[in-house]
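Internal QA ticket QA-208
Title: Verify multi-chain structure generation after dependency bump
Assignee: T.L.

Test input:
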Amino acid sequence: MRHKSKKIAFLGLCAGVALVLAYVEALLPPLYAAVPGIKLGLPNIAIIFILYRFGLREATVVSFVRIVAVTLLFGNPMTFAYSVAGAFLSLLVMTILRKLDFLSIVGVSVAGAVFHNVGQILTAMVLLGTAELGYYLIVLAITGTISGLLVGLCGAMAVKRVFIKNI
Amino acid sequence: MNQNNTTMPTAKSGGRRFRNDVIFIAALLAIVALAGLFVFLFRQPGDTVVVTIDGEHYATYSLNENMTVPIHTGQDGEQINVLIIRDGQAHVQEASCPDGICAAHKPIHREGESIVCLPHRVVITVHSTSEQDAPDIVT
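Actual output:
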């Protein structure tokens, strides 16, 4: 408990990093505009780092702060619903896989990215009442695997190298 | 800092995890490839286009007639997506939505394909009215 404030400050810093990564990603041109939802998911580098260094509780809080901030800055209420659903399903799956402990960070990140897309498609299916959207998952699962791979490699490097004393 | 044990696996367990990663990703891609193959093999060309707004049915058009349909949404109909049906394919010519993803979408004609405009909550989906006589698959 002695270092609680230090931990809060550090988590705030991580939320800031996630926000900047979201901004950097918003600056990039869309990778393939024909299918919505294809993204690198750079902010997840910070989220994965927190998930491994702290745990689900901290990762959830930072993820939520990040989504609220990103929505206020660049998004609209609709994107908020998609982001929340994707982020929480992704966090849930990553936590379970991390506890099962048979994959490295990269594998966990890939699963997280794919389930991020699953959560968003499910939300879109509910909100728009169209079951046919499930077809998008085939494309999104492939792109999610690639982006999850890249994010996982970056996240693994961060977990391996970034150490802060007494947190 | 007892978390070092979990975040820094030994070389042996790291190798095992790496192998599991490869198997996991390969399995994931195999499932996706199978699903894609299944869709590719069994999806038939559709003959109608169904437009829904906010989950509510809005209109149904035939893919066999060339036409241009402006779809107005929003409180005063100030939002617009222009649906074009030409040569048995449907696409969105232009739209007033901020991202323009629907207008960038390739033309659709196979059953189940759809163009979605999330900002306007417009979904354009290809349907088939002759779903009953789906082809028998002989193995």
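Spot checks passed. Residues 3 and 9 of chain B are 11 Å apart (CA to CA).
Status: verified.
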